[in-house]
Amino acid sequence: RAAMKSLRFISAEAFVSNAEFARKSLGGIAHDLFPLLFKASYLLEQGEVIHDLVQNWPLVDFNMGKLLETTVDYQEDLSHRTCSVCLESCLTGLRDYVLNHPSPYMKRLKVVDLTGIKDVEVQLCECKKTMGRWARTQLLSKLCLELLVYLPQTRCNPGTFEISINVLIDLFVTERNYELVVQALLKKCYCPLKICCVALRSDNLALQKFFHIIKLTDPSLLRKLEIVHNVRLEMEHLEILFNSIHFPLLMSLTLPARTFNVRRFTTTDEQMLTNIGEKMGEMTQLTELSMSFSVLTGRIQKLLSPLKTPLKMLDVSNCSLNHADMAYLASSFHANHLEALDLSGHNISDLYPSIFFKLLSHSSSVLRSLTLEDCNIQDTHVNLLILGLSPCQKLQEFKFLGNPLSSQALKHLFTFLCELPMLKKVEFPVPRDCYPIGMTYPIDDANLCRFDHEKYERVAEELNLILLQANREDMKASSPLFGSYDAAIQETNNELGAYLIKSFKETLEKFTTSL
């Protein structure tokens, strides 16, 4: 359904649709109309107009999220459109704002906030070309370095050198853009555009380089830290990180797979884990924690009990939690505040059903997202699951891929899910009866696609019919075989693939040498 537009917005669209006329006329436009014209230009992908609007921006701040979100004049939120044409025009316009000579005394811009841009799977922009987080990091770093080359060469007004604009951005650093970002951060004090890293994601990076980049970003400003793929951070490195760097504003922390492995713990390791827990306890803003694919059996309490602020998001998928871990989670003060919980990879129905439902009960008043993938939930568990989910009236997202459920059990579950008023997204498994008889769970990647596709389509239609008959067209149900969409992986998958091949080759060479 098309969003309503005010007469002001329709007029703004008409004005910017003639790019040549709009660019010539900007000098006579009232300052308070610039945000309106920016959103209209963004919607119509008028790159040249966007560039000139930013180049002549008359206001003190430029906040992308607020400019593109729902407004009185146009209620559609455009912040999830990472349109390459629009974003490149915006960033080059920012560079040219600094170089724009005619009226430096009018330059009031102090803060540019690029953190409100959301990377999503489906792009609605006409050009269909996106500029993801990695590419935005790359381009901003490049433009900052360009400025340092241009400024001495151009006959700038002396006032140009007094311009100082803080640019808030979520940086995404990999091996491929590392050197460029490092140079931009090292020369930050000389550049009118000051990169202020609010969130940092690091993939495919040697540990030494990771430690270098994180110190350059000014950790005192960091709100979110994601150390995800191919950064070989283990527990001893994490202790060094927390001992050497203070993160006073950190709200969200994601650690790579195998950061912890209690199976090979010594007495020294136990002390190290205690120290890490205490350091996390000093992070008074920390409310989101992801530690998937670590082995944390029996140690969740030691790690989480020092936290002084309750967690709102916890991902402990595939962490080999035992009964004691689940009992701690269910009775901890975190339980009543959890808005997002991922317990994938745990056999909850057989190992600790009553404690799991106690945890669900405690978090039910606030829980918005629940992920239970590869949890061995079978047909016999569906009624219990429905009982556990019934109080979760604020649930917006439920993912349970990889569970051996029949098409009949899924229909039963979907009939119940229609009753959860705020549920919008469901990720369900391909029914067990679509696979060959005897298929074992969890299904490996090689066999994931070996199911009866025609039968699956029929079942999916029946499930969608259940939603339709319950007037729940607002609910979207799907079966992404290889997991949910990850914008960061999508953007850097070529580099990630090359890294994995290189690692595999090195392993083979070591194996051959040893033979």
TrEMBL record:
Annotated signal sequence range: none
Keyword rRNA-binding in record: no
Source taxon at top rank: Eukaryota
InterPro entries (UniProt xref): LRR_dom_sf, LRRC14/PRAME
CC annotations in GO: cytoplasm
Protein family membership: Belongs to the PRAME family. LRRC14 subfamily.
Official protein name in the record: Leucine-rich repeat-containing protein 14B
Gene source species: Eurystomus gularis
Gene (UniProt): Lrrc14b
